[in-house]
Amino acid sequence: MGAIPVLCVDTTASQSTGGTLDGFIEVWNFTTGKIRKDLRYQAQDQFMLMDDAVSCMSFSRDSEMLATGSQDGKIKVWKIQTGQCLRRFEKAHSAGVTCITFSRDGSQLLSASFDQTIRIHGLKSGKTLKEFRGHSSFVNEAHFTADGHTVISASSDGSVKVWSLKSTECLNTFKPAMGSSASEITVNSIHLLPRNTEQFVVCNRTNTVSIMNMMGQIVKSFSSGKRQGGDFVCCVLSPRGEWIYCVGEDHTMYCFSVTPGKLERTLTIHEKEVIGVSHHPHQNLLASFSEDGTLKLWRP
């Protein structure tokens, strides 16, 4: 099977899934790091499969379903226990799916795409229910906010947008990066703070990661301090939002403590470009995966 460009850990931390460039989806035991052979279909070397490279995935809150998106714009929803495909959205997007997440009640999917749109899909109807348009480049991430009234998105056009879930209109547009070329600086990801729902972390392709509020004001910023190779490619929060872990172009992980606002430590984690980083939902444990074909677990 191909390299693993996508990793997802369920909320119980009992299992994780990896998606490959050739479309295979594997379910692993998180503790042992081995493929779960207690799942009958995997024991028989049968795997959940997309038609193209897996680009994103997400567990439902009860960890019984897995949604996967691919580079050809399709979305599938699977039952983990049986490997059965419960629902397919053949034309979810006209280009690769960059991000996917379940609604709180598990009845809808929110997805973002290289086609510059964000969409909501109904699991029961199998149809696209809503579309959010306004970004002028790739949409890299989208989330439902905690109050259930809005959606927040990050794009390669350099902006973060807040949308009305009811009307789909854009309520606010923020440009997190400063300077003359700010409009061209890709926003890699956004992360809602678990203990302060009015604030979120913005990771863009600069050497600075920021905490912003829903008014677009920068509350706090953290920098790698490096002019070359220190631009961030990905970032993740600890479960309580006390730590921000950013990975730079230099393959180094920068560990920031939120309250004092300090860079506490750095750690070189891979030899080649890091694709992504994920945090264990309960423990002080991080997973990183890279173009060098490795997946590593860290205790920062």
Strand content: over 45%
Helix content: under 10%
Order of helices and strands: EEEHEEEEEEEEEEEEEEEEEEEEEEEE
* Strand element count: 27
Average pLDDT number: 90
Query: Which class of secondary structure composition applies to the elements?
Result: mainly beta
> Strand arrangement, largest sheet?
1-2-3-4
Biggest sheet features:
4 strands, antiparallel
Number of helices: 1
General shape: globular
Distance N terminus to C terminus?
A: 30 Å
Any low-confidence stretches, pLDDT <50, length ≥5?
none
Radius of gyration: 18 Å
Secondary structure layout:
Elements: E1 6-9, E2 15-19, E3 24-29, H1 40-43, E4 48-49, E5 54-59, E6 65-70, E7 75-79, E8 84-89, E9 97-102, E10 108-113, E11 117-122, E12 128-133, E13 139-144, E14 150-155, E15 160-164, E16 170-174, E17 187-192, E18 199-204, E19 208-213, E20 218-223, E21 232-237, E22 243-248, E23 252-257, E24 262-268, E25 274-279, E26 286-290, E27 295-298
Antiparallel strand pairs: 1-2, 2-3, 3-4, 5-6, 6-7, 7-8, 9-10, 10-11, 11-12, 13-14, 14-15, 15-16, 17-18, 18-19, 19-20, 21-22, 22-23, 23-24, 25-26, 26-27
Descriptive report:
The protein has 300 residues and is mainly beta. The protein is 1% helix and 50% strand. The strands form 7 sheets. The protein has a 4-stranded antiparallel sheet with strand order 1-2-3-4, with no helix packed on it. A 4-stranded antiparallel sheet has the order 5-6-7-8, with no helix packed on it. A hairpin with a 6-residue loop joins strand 25 and strand 26 (286-290). The longest helix has 4 residues, at 40-43. It is globular, with a radius of gyration of 18 Å. The protein starts with 5 loop residues before the first strand and ends with a strand.
